[in-house]
Design a protein that fits this description.
The complex is a heterodimer.
Chain A (H helix, E strand, L loop, with lengths): L2 H14 L3 H22 L6 H14 L11 H25 L19 H15 L3 H11 L5 H8 L3 H22 L1
Helix pairs in contact in A: 1-2, 2-3, 2-4, 2-6, 3-4, 4-7, 5-8, 6-8, 7-8
Chain B lengths: L7 H21 L8 H13 L8 H6 L1 H27 L3 H14 L3
The chains are: A mainly alpha, B mainly alpha.
Chain lengths: 184, 111
C-alpha cells in the first residue's frame, strides 16, 4: 500500500472514532484532486468548491459505512464525488431550465492573468475536448488526470473492472489526442 | 501474452499514455489549488453547526421542487383512488348506501 493510501486508511479509522482532525487530514490528501475533478466535470465549474465540501461532509456522516475490503479510501471518496457531480449536473439542468441558474462564465481576475493567457487557452481547449467525450470516458480520464488515481482505484470508484477502465482510458486518450491535434 | 518488458511497442505505448496523462494532469492543475485551508475550515465549521437530525432540509425542497411536487401529487392521487375504491367497493352503489352517505354529509351540514 502506498504511503498516501496508508495515511488515508489511518485517517479513516480515526474518523470512525469521531476524530475531526482525521477529516482535515483526508481533506488535505484528497481535497485538491476532488475539487479539480468537480471543476472539470460539473456544467457549472463554480460549484466545484461546494461539491468538494459536500463530499467530505458526507464522508464524515457515512464514515461507518466505509468497507476497506471494497476498495481504497480514495475510491470511496471519489465515488461520492462522482455521484454528487452527476446529481448536481442533473439538478442544474432543471434549475437552468426554469431560469434559477445560469452557467457561470469562467473568470480570472488574478494579477498577471494575461501572462498565463496561453496556458488558459490550452486549458480551455482541453476542457472543451474533454466535454465532447462520452460520460464514462470523461469520468475515467478525469479521475486519472485530476484525481491522479490508479486503474484499480478508478475501477472501484466507478464500480467497474480494471479492464473496463483501461478500455475507457484508451478510448478517451485517443479521442482527446485526435481532437487536440485537429485544433493545433 | 507479451508484457511491457518484452514488447518494445507496448512499452512505448504505455510510456506515451503515461506522458499524456501527466501532461493532462499538469494542465488541469491551477496555481494555488493545492490550498485546502478554506475548504477544511468551512467543512469543520459546518460540522460544528450541523443540526442533529434533519434528513431533508428545507433548502433541498426549495432547490429541487419538482420531485417533491410530484411526490405530493402522487400521494394525492393515491388518496383519491383509495377514496373512490372504498366508496364504491365497501359501501357499494346501492340506494341505501347513498342514503347513508346523505345522512353522513347531512350531519356535517351538506346535502
Amino acid at each position: 500500500m502506498d504511503p498516501r493510501q496508508a495515511e488515508a486508511a489511518a485517517a479513516m479509522a480515526a474518523m470512525v472514532q469521531g476524530e475531526r482532525a482525521a477529516l482535515a487530514r483526508l481533506i488535505a490528501l484528497y481535497g485538491p484532486g476532488i475539487r479539480r475533478y468537480a471543476a472539470q466535470i460539473l456544467v457549472n465549474a463554480g460549484e466545484a468548491e461546494d461539491v468538494a465540501q459536500e463530499v467530505f461532509l458526507r464522508a464524515w456522516s457515512r464514515a461507518t459505512s466505509y468497507d476497506p475490503a471494497k476498495g481504497a479510501v480514495s475510491s470511496w471518496l471519489y465515488r461520492i464525488a462522482v455521484n454528487l457531480c452527476i446529481d448536481h449536473n442533473r439538478r442544474g439542468r432543471f434549475r437552468r431550465f426554469v431560469g434559477i441558474d445560469s452557467v457561470a462564465e469562467p473568470e480570472d481576475d488574478t494579477p498577471g492573468a494575461e501572462a498565463g493567457l496561453a496556458a488558459r487557452q490550452r486549458l480551455a481547449l482541453a476542457h472543451a475536448a474533454i466535454r465532447t467525450l462520452p460520460e464514462r470516458q470523461r469520468q475515467a480520464i478525469l479521475l486519472k488526470a485530476a484525481g491522479e488515481l490508479s486503474g484499480a482505484e478508478i475501477a472501484a470508484a466507478l464500480n467497474t473492472s480494471e479492464g473496463a477502465v483501461e478500455q475507457l482510458l484508451v478510448r478517451a486518450r485517443a479521442a482527446l489526442r485526435a481532437r487536440l491535434e485537429k485544433e493545433d | 501474452m507479451p508484457d511491457q518488458k518484452t514488447n518494445p511497442k507496448l512499452s512505448a505505448d504505455v510510456s506515451a499514455d503515461d506522458a499524456f496523462d501527466r501532461d493532462l494532469a499538469a494542465l488541469l492543475k491551477m496555481p494555488g489549488d493545492e490550498d485546502v485551508a478554506l475548504m477544511s475550515r468551512t467543512v469543520l465549521s459546518q460540522l460544528a453547526d450541523a443540526p442533529a437530525s434533519r434528513d431533508h432540509p428545507m433548502a433541498e425542497v426549495l432547490s429541487e421542487p419538482l420531485p417533491w411536487a410530484m411526490g405530493f401529487a402522487g400521494l394525492m392521487g393515491l388518496g383519491v383512488l383509495l377514496g373512490y375504491l372504498l366508496s364504491s367497493g365497501v359501501i357499494g352503489d346501492s340506494f341505501l348506501a347513498f342514503l347513508a352517505l346523505g345522512d353522513f354529509f347531512g350531519l356535517l351540514g351538506g346535502f
